[in-house]
Design goal:
287 residues; mainly alpha; Arc Repressor Mutant, subunit A; two-stranded antiparallel sheet
Length: 287
């Protein structure tokens, strides 16, 4: 969108582009919709670039380059031009405003912070209106507690007080790198923020204990399975020890018996396994 002459010249040319009369605007839209006239599609957004610049200027306080905001707004303008329906008899600027604003807001949400915020309409409204609402409340009420302010903002936007407090904290502080040094170490090195993060992984003795318990239970099960006859073993393996888990009907058809008979054999096999496992557990407690 920008050429070698620079963004200032681009903005100047955009502001000097002639306005379109309503009839001319409609004619261009009809030529694009009915004849796919690319020249008409080009002229329609070209005449409304000043609208993109005006809307982009409203979002300058988020700290992103103005040229990027204009670029994203231009994407929304082109989308609006491609989708505009002249039969609705509304001005193109009215229709395009929503697309331009939405494109810029999506860009800000993607790039304002490395921490991604909510993407629901309520969360977006909170992100873009929190500062304005906070300023209005403090202007009308000189002494207001933070909790009361968060409550009023939550009621105005339709989100929870916790959502407001979380967003307020995000907007009040910049992102901090986990590799940022905190202090010099005793050996002349530096400690990073990530060095202070707690490790939620299990301790080594817990991992060893889990491994031993898992192996012990596996051995118990394998030994208990030996008490089953061939048909009972097949039913337990396909019904209980398989990822898919065969149905009573399918297993009955394979074994040539009714599904009720399969259920009875399965129940008997599980009882035999339970008894065998309890016997092994009792025996191991005495060793």
């Amino acid at each position: 969108m920008h050429d070698a002459s620079g963004p200032r010249d681009f903005v100047k040319r955009a502001m000097q582009a002639p306005y379109l009369e309503r009839e001319e605007e409609q004619a261009l839209a009809v030529r694009w919709k009915e004849c796919e006239d690319q020249a008409a599609l080009h002229r329609l957004p070209q005449a409304h670039m000043r609208l993109v610049i005006a809307i982009a200027a409203r979002f300058r306080h988020f700290g992103l380059p103005m040229s990027d905001l204009i670029q994203e707004g231009h994407v929304g303008l082109l989308e609006a031009a491609a989708r505009f329906e002249p039969a609705r008899e509304v001005r193109f600027s009215t229709y395009a405003t929503w697309w331009i604003r939405a494109s810029i807001q999506d860009f800000i949400l993607r790039n304002w912070s490395i921490v991604r915020g909510g993407t629901s309409s309520a969360q977006k409204a909170l992100f873009f209106n929190l500062r304005r609402l906070r300023a209005r409340i403090t202007q009308n009420t000189h002494q207001v507690s933070t909790s009361d302010m968060h409550r009023q903002i939550a009621e105005a936007i339709g989100v929870s007080v916790n959502d407001v407090a979380t967003m307020d904290a995000r907007l009040s502080g910049a992102d901090a790198s986990l590799n940022a040094p905190l202090s010099d170490g005793e050996d002349g090195g530096s400690a990073d923020r990530q060095d202070l993060l707690p490790d939620t992984a299990p301790l080594q003795d817990e991992l060893v204990g889990q491994s031993i318990d898992t192996e012990r239970r596996k051995n118990w099960l394998n030994h208990a399975l030996t008490v089953l006859n061939e048909r009972e073993l097949k039913i337990v393996r396909e019904r209980r020890l398989s990822d898919d888990g065969a149905t009573l009907e399918a297993l009955g058809a394979k074994l040539g018996i009714s599904k009720e008979r399969v259920r009875q054999l399965e129940s008997r096999a599980l009882q035999k396994l339970k008894t065998a496992l309890l016997d092994q557990q009792s025996a191991s407690s005495y060793t």
